[in-house]
Amino acid sequence: MEKLNENILADPEYDGRDIALTHFSVKLLKEAGVWGRIPNISKSPIKEARVLNGYSPYFLHFDHRKAGCDELGYLISNHLIRKAYYDEIKNFSNIELITDTTVTSINRNPEAATITLSNGKIIETRLIIAADSRFSETRRGEGISARTLDFGQICVVCRMQHEEPHFDIAYECFYYGRTLAVLPLTENQSSIVITAPSNQHNKILNIAENKFNKEVSAQFKFRLGNMKLISKRFAYPLIAVYANRFVSTRFALIGDAAVGMHPVTAHGFNLGLKGQNALAKEIKNALEKKIDIGYPSVLTNYQSIHRRVSYPLYLATNGIVCLYTNETSKARFLRKIILKLANNIWPVKRVILNKLTAIED
Ligand SMILES: Cc1cc2nc3c(=O)[nH]c(=O)nc-3n(C[C@H](O)[C@H](O)[C@H](O)COP(=O)(O)OP(=O)(O)OC[C@H]3O[C@@H](n4cnc5c(N)ncnc54)[C@H](O)[C@@H]3O)c2cc1C
């Protein structure tokens, strides 16, 4: 059930988000029959990642060769992933897609659950799964509290064309005041992610195109030559959310409704897929053992697996954002030290590379 119109789901527009996918996510997309529906030309490999601090040329370096893989991951536009899922589920006669609809009320008890929809329809079910974004109305409506962390920042995303090739290298530049991510797409195009305090929202979105081009090219030190805007600019508020429970009686949260991450570590969608996979496994196990899929043990197994995976990443990501947006001299010093340590202590790097390239959960 989805509040958008079916035409939008069938042919979603580019929304500025280019999603960096780990190898495990690619495996899940393949298993779901979705990977093959995304045109190969739109799957951009990331061979290296470089993290820079302040205006220093020194960078933390991740290289696909060190990970023993052809690439660290892939960048794929969010709208293409959505379209591929839509096209795939249309093949299933046992999936009914109800669009232009929201939930009016939910009734749950240990025996059964019912959902009343805005179109008047009532659905009786053994398990309700909510995936209605980090601002989930269903989560709130069902009395599940969540920790939210408003970073007071926005992120402006767009695509730019440039004179020089990117060699499939992704850059995350933690400048002072702003951060700039430049992520390699096909040919001489990159996905640009600018993070800045929320009060710069209008300025970054509405500044004239030629000025924007000059600013970004200069900020990126002309590594890719002159850069030129080739898409609309989109803004997203940066608010992280972690639900205090992922399950309740005959009810489960997945995706951003369970964990809404800051995009700096590119984990939100990847984690969402992991959570959905963990819940699907528990449901499959229950069906095989002829156990009710809404039974508390089925749901609490999912919850403990997904909290164990997501909570350390959630804390680490928030910690990185807080440190790398802190401009005090102490923080600037610490930023430099941490980058050097991470670059030179192989076990730390190995853990990060494994997170990107492992194909097992
Ligand atoms: C700029 C940016 C860059 C990102 N980059 C990455 C990245 O590189 N890697 C990564 O892994 N993640 C990334 N993410 C995170 C990723 O986009 C999200 O984690 C992911 O899209 C969440 O998917 P979702 O389906 O849970 O929620 P959403 O994408 O928010 O979808 C929620 C759906 O629920 C529907 N809905 C909402 N409310 C209701 C309602 N009341 N009733 C019915 N339907 C409703 C909405 O219409 C929507 O279709 C990025 C995010 C941003 C903002």
Number of β-strand runs: 18
Q: Strand-and-helix sequence, N→C?
A: HEHEEEHEHEEEEHEEEEHHEEEEEHHHH
Return the average pLDDT rounded to an integer: 94
Question: Which structural class should the secondary elements be placed in?
Answer: alpha+beta
Q: What is the alpha-carbon Rg in Å?
A: 21 Å
Q: β content, as a range? A: 25-35%
Helix content: 25-40%
Architecture overview:
Helices cover 36% and strands 27% of the residues. The longest helix is centred in the last third of the chain and has 29 residues, at 296-324. The chain has helices at 6-10, 23-31, 64-67, 78-89, 137-141, 201-206, 209-219, 268-288, 296-324, 329-344, 346-357; strands spanning 18-21, 44-46, 48-53, 59-63, 73-77, 103-108, 113-117, 122-125, 128-130, 146-162, 169-174, 179-184, 189-197, 227-229, 234-243, 247-248, 251-253, 259-260. With 361 residues, the chain is an alpha+beta fold. It contains 11 helices and 18 strands. The site of flavin-adenine dinucleotide has 27 residues, from strand 1, strand 10 and helix 8.
Which features characterize this protein?
binds flavin-adenine dinucleotide, nine-stranded mixed β-sheet, 27% strand, 361 residues
Please give the structural blueprint.
Layout: H1 6-10, E1 18-21, H2 23-31, E2 44-46, E3 48-53, E4 59-63, H3 64-67, E5 73-77, H4 78-89, E6 103-108, E7 113-117, E8 122-125, E9 128-130, H5 137-141, E10 146-162, E11 169-174, E12 179-184, E13 189-197, H6 201-206, H7 209-219, E14 227-229, E15 234-243, E16 247-248, E17 251-253, E18 259-260, H8 268-288, H9 296-324, H10 329-344, H11 346-357
Parallel strand pairs: 3-11, 9-17
Antiparallel strand pairs: 1-5, 2-5, 3-4, 6-7, 7-8, 10-13, 10-14, 10-15, 11-12, 12-13, 15-18, 16-17
Helix pairs in contact: 8-9
Bound molecules: flavin-adenine dinucleotide (FAD).
Flavin-adenine dinucleotide binds at residues 1-4, 17, 19-20, 78, 102-103, 131-133, 137, 155, 157, 193, 236, 255-256, 263, 266-270, 272.
